[in-house]
Amino acid sequence: MPSKLATQIAQKHGVDPVRLEQLANQQRQQASRTTTRPRATPGLSIEAIDRFIGQGNPLAAAGGARTLLRATGGNLAGAAFLAALARKESSFGIKAGRFTNNFWGWGVHLGPNVNTSRTVEEGARKVWTGLSSGLYKGAGLTTPSSIIQRYAP
After folding, report:
1. CA nearest neighbour of 150 among 75, 85, 96
2. Which residue has the higher pLDDT, 5 or 42?
3. How many CA within 13 A on the CB side of residue 57?
4. What is the spatial distance between Cα 85 and Cα 79, in angstroms, rounded to a whole number?
5. Nearest-CA neighbor of 112 among 101, 125, 99?
6. Which of 39, 67, 122, 124 stands 20 to 30 A from 116 (CA)?
7. Is the pLDDT of residue 30 over 70?
8. Within 10 A of 137 (CB to CB), how many other CB atoms are there?
9. Whether 92 contacts 103, CB under 8 Å
10. 103 close to 89: Cβ distance less than 8 angstroms
């Protein structure tokens, strides 16, 4: 049975309230798993990623490594990769320009509003989902050096 809030939102937007509640539950479950059990990667830690990100920039202000970790479903190496990409593309968001919460330059060639997000985590999740898709991972591009050849040739 969907919650009262899910029913109200679903009615407002013309979607199935049961499906909306299922999606919300899936997101809550994923969030609870990723904040408590990040995947282990030898020599890598949330603290190390935060040191790399530093302070005084938009990515640090948005939660730094923990935000990226949630966006990648608990994948420390993925969070580190997104941090490195954010450094290269926008100096951790300092040079993001008109692309709200898009510190990675994801889809900027497609138009002025193509990748603006409500939060940095949402923006990072879009990038991570794209990198994990057939466009990159499915094409066998799984290392930073192989991904960057397609991402920014």
Report:
1. 85
2. 42
3. 21
4. 10
5. 99
6. 39
7. no
8. 13
9. yes
10. yes
**Which of 14-18, 34-38, 49-53, 135-139 ranks highest by mean pLDDT?**
49-53
pTM for this predicted structure: 0.66
In angstroms, rounded to a whole number, what is the distance separating the alpha carbons of residues 26 and 144?
Answer: 29
DSSP bridge pairs for 75: 39
* Size of the chain, expressed as the number of residues it contains: 153
Per-position b or e across 12-23, b if 16+ CB within 10 A of its CB: eeeeebeebbee
Percentage of the chain beyond pLDDT 70 is 63
Residue found by looking up tokens 């479903």 in the block: 73
Task: Give 153's DSSP letter.
Answer: -
Q: Is 75 helix (H, G, I), strand (E, B) or coil?
A: strand
Residue 149 pLDDT > 80, yes or no? no
Tell me the pLDDT tens digit for each residue of 99-121. Answer: 788 888 887 666 665 667 889 99
Q: Give the Cα separation of 44 and 77 in Å (integer).
A: 7
